[in-house]
Amino acid sequence: MQLRLPVAPDVRARLERLELPFSRTGVDPFGVSRAHLGSLFTALRALYKSYFTVKAFGTENIPARGRAMLVGNHSGGVAIDAAMVLASMFFELDPPRLAHGMAEKFIAKIPFAGEWAARCGQFTGLPQHATRLLEAERLLMVFPEGARGTAKLYPERNSLVGFGTGFMRLALETRTPIIPFAFLGGGEAIPTILNAYRLGKLLGVPYIPVTPYLLAIPLPVSLEVYYGAPRFFEGTGREDDAVIAGYVDEVKREIAAMIDGGQRRRDGSGPRSLTAGSAR
Amino acid sequence: MKVLILGIAGVLGRMVGQELIAAGHEVIGLDRRPWPTAPRGIEVHRLDVRKRGAEEIFRTRRPDAVVHMATVTSLVMRGEERYRLNLDGTRALFEHSERHGVKHVIFVGRHTYYGAGPDSPLFHTEDEPPIGLATFPELADLVAADLYASTALWRMPTLTTTVLRMCYTLGPTGHGTLAGFLKGKRVPTVMGFDPLFQFMHEHDAVDAITTAVRARPRGVFNVAGPQPIPFSFLIRAVGRRPVPVPEPLLDAVIGRFGLPDLPAGALSHLKYPVVIDGSAFRRASGFAHRIDEDRVMREFRDAFPVR
User: Which of residues 7-46 of B touch A (CB under 8 A)?
Assistant: First the structure.
């Protein structure tokens, strides 16, 4: 599509420092386009800095380059969690990094959505894609709760549903460090009271989240994301399910603990000594 | 070495023939179409490989290597005759080859084997089944020919078989499926979809085939050139204008208003990418493309300026 937002000057400057192998036409080998990223991050910048006011903690835990896997909880009925993690990797790190999300399969079928997702490095969540991106030393963003995670209702917003185990086998196989993260506030931004599955099916998506004010337009609340220290698991990826489940549980417990800590701080009952954006 | 080329009268076939002559090989050609301007060194037989006379050429001329470039797509020929040509032709070629002492057969196939779909991965590897066939049934005979050719790997152990799945070619001759689609001033796209396209310069494609003749890698190999780029970028880079058409209207406008024609199933190839990983062939043969995507597109644009 030709329609493009004017790219914000600081986004342009950060794009220059993004370490992706862009060709002369501004496309990397996976089809990620510099021009599309400019529009995307200009839009996300407004959400990240003004609308939600996102605070990112522990960004110093993200390696400056080389393969890594961000693994965290879903928070919010639409993908604002993924968008804000993407924005924090771009705006808080020096040099900035592009996080590659693993998109739901239905997105590729939706006109424009599929095109923009692919041009911005958000590929369908296939194991082949994940492996290739990690082997190309990229930063992968994984939500092991999957679509069940975004379907959490308001009272369940700080809980975790079952974790898939694919990410752990992949991490072992490709010898990739896992950076657990906790995302807070998405459930307050989009207080889902029910998910309309039948309506979603009609529209070609898994479900439509419904809020007290009907539409799933996020409220301008403050959001927080906590990045933990990288975890490196030893193995081949061919271990028994029980072994893998044990490793996955370790990561899950770590994320749950970060959610708890963050929640106490949000409620005003915990320590307030952490400073946001400490990587800068 | 004595090399027999099936489909030598095609644009790529002629180039491969001339390249092999230049490299000091003896070249024999077989084609249903004429090649009146064939260079003196190339012996061309105007014949269908399924006809009796074709086996006589294998028997009397005893080639060391056979290059099969005589399969056709649904863009060139519609209907059942294409199935017969592609499948019976491939069968005849392998049987004659085995019977008459050929050491190496190269089947030149296409990367569209993998097909395109919303859940197909970027960078297909050779071990993948042709899942995308479901959306593009007109490719069935070519997929079958590709898989049939690879059965020679176990059925005919005395023969070295190379199956090449080549990405699109593009270049100043304007030959090939992609070039044909890009020739007009306006190029239809599916609104809201912009798949990656993977192509290589025709010289690199010729080089890949002659490299396979020389290196004789055994097995099935993807052949890729430079990195893929989005369709709309490609259309603009060759000086054309993309015309995004909403999917429900495409059937009505395709082949009209100066837009190129397409079989119905080809739509999936305008919505989703077919991108292959060519690293196995590079490792097995030492092939490396020499012409980057910018030069490929520039040469095509200069050879076919928009008027």
Answer: none
Inter-chain contact B118–A129, Cβ cutoff 8 Å?
A: no
Q: Scanning every residue of chain B, which has its alpha carbon at the shortest distance from the alpha carbon of A33? A: B230
- Per-residue pLDDT tens over the stretch A24-64: 999 999 999 999 999 999 999 999 999 988 999 999 999 99
Instruction: Give the CATH fold of the A9-267 domain.
Output: Glycerol-3-phosphate (1)-acyltransferase (3.40.1130)
What's the pLDDT tens digit per position in B157-177?
999 999 999 999 999 999 999
> Which of B289 and A265 is assigned the larger pLDDT?
B289
> Residue B84: which domain range?
2-173+200-227+275-292
Residue B83 lies in a domain: yes
Sort out which chain A residues have CB atoms less than 8 A from B190's CB and list them: 111
Residue B83 in contact with partner chain A when CB distance is under 8 A: no
DSSP string, chain B: -EEEEETTTSHHHHHHHHHHHHTT-EEEEEESS--TT--TT-EEEE--TTSHHHHHHHHHH--SEEEE-----TTT--SHHHHHHHHHHHHHHHHHHHHTT--EEEEEEEGGGG---TTPPSSB-TT---GGGGG-GGGHHHHHHHHHHHHHHHH-TTSEEEEEEE-EEESTT--SHHHHHH-SSEEEEETT---EE-EEEHHHHHHHHHHHHHH---EEEEE--S--EEHHHHHHHTT-EEEEE-HHHHHHHTTSTTPPP--GGGHHHHHS---B--HHHHHHH-----S-HHHHHHHHHHHS---
The pTM assigned to this predicted structure is 0.92
Here the CATH number for the domain that contains residue B111 is 3.40.50.720
Residue B229 contacts A where some CB pair is shorter than 8 Å: yes
CA distance A119 to chain B (A): 9
* Chain A with chain B: Cβ pairs closer than 8 A: 66
Question: Is there a contact between B118 and A105 if contact means CB atoms under 8 Å apart?
Answer: yes
- Mutual orientation of helices A166-174 and A127-135 as an angle, nearest 10°? 30
Inform me whether the C-beta atom of residue B193 falls under 8 Å from chain A C-beta atoms.
yes
Confidence of residue A277 (pLDDT cuts 50, 70, 90): very low
Does any domain span residue B255? no
Check A132 against B119: CB less than 8 A apart.
no
Instruction: Flag whether B153 is in a domain.
Output: yes
Q: For B34-60, what is each residue's pLDDT tens digit? A: 999 999 899 999 999 999 999 999 999
